[in-house]
Design goal:
With about 250 residues, this protein is of the alpha/beta class. It has one domain: Luciferase-like domain (TIM Barrel, Alpha-Beta Barrel). The protein has ten helices and nine strands. Strands 1-2-3-5-6-7-8-9 form an eight-stranded parallel β-barrel, surrounded by eight helices. The mean pLDDT is about 95.
């Protein structure tokens, strides 16, 4: 298995940055642009700018929290996007009870209401099983290559055609390593992620890609899943830095 390679950015980066970065990603051969939801920013609005600037690039959200965005809200907001290129990633957000049912019900409703593919962000085994059975795919994150391959195999055993994507925080510039470490430390402090790292017996720092290991680390991840989303971590988050990120990845995998 050699996974397709995609680019991930934060919704906070905004539509203007997406409008510059998306065509560069498409030209470099990336499969998709993933926009991860951030409070106060609309991932779908960012994808709309990317859609206007591209022709083939898959457009994906990673992930819309269904505890605060209803399927109706998501379907309405996504109506103007090209359904044939759209993948709606959804997750449980801050829901603490009934999270699996909340997400699977939302996935079912979005599959009924839209022509987009629907993928579920999942950490724990119960959510991963539900995602593989009740949606078009599973979005994993913060995993080592070995753990990612094992979880992908579990998902494919439930539904062979399910699509397993993996977010991997990645820095290509030494000046971005501090931001990468800060991101890993922040996620390690969230209870759900802390529990997942403990369950897997890994540190958050073991689940990222650093500048010195780009080629081998990307290859290791691509061997185990269907899609690797390189979530760009840059020194300041500027558009120019994202463009350099794309160039560095293209050079590393050439």
């Amino acid at each position: 298995m050699t996974a397709v390679l995609s680019l991930g950015i934060a919704a906070a980066a905004g539509p203007a940055l997406a409008g510059r970065v998306a065509p560069a990603a498409e030209a470099a051969g990336f499969h998709a642009l993933w926009v991860n939801d951030t409070p106060g920013h609309d991932a779908l609005a960012v994808l709309a700018a990317a859609a206007d600037a591209t022709e083939r690039l898959v457009l994906a959200t990673g992930v819309l929290p269904v505890d605060r965005r209803t399927p109706d809200d998501i379907a309405v907001a996504a109506a103007g996007l090209p359904a044939g290129r759209l993948m709606l990633g959804v997750g449980s957000g801050q829901a603490r009870t009934g999270a699996v049912e909340l997400v699977t019900d939302a996935a079912a409703e979005l599959r009924r209401r839209t022509d987009a593919r629907v993928i579920v962000g999942a950490l724990g085994p119960r959510m991963r099983r539900a995602a593989a059975a009740a949606s078009d795919g599973v979005l994993l994150s913060w995993l080592t290559p070995r753990a990612a391959a094992a979880q992908a195999a579990e998902a494919h055993a439930i539904t062979p055609e399910t699509h397993v994507a993996l977010y991997v925080r990645t820095a290509v510039d030494d000046a971005a390593v501090a931001a990468l470490d800060e991101e890993a430390t922040r996620y390690a402090g969230y209870p759900a992620y802390a529990a997942n790292f403990a369950r897997l017996g890994v540190d958050a720092a073991d689940t990222v890609i650093r500048p010195a290991e780009l080629r081998d680390r990307i290859a290791g991840y691509r061997a185990g899943v269907d899609e690797v989303v390189l979530r760009a971590i840059t020194p300041t988050g500027s558009a120019d830095e994202h463009l350099r990120f794309i160039d560095a990845i293209a050079e590393a995998i050439a």
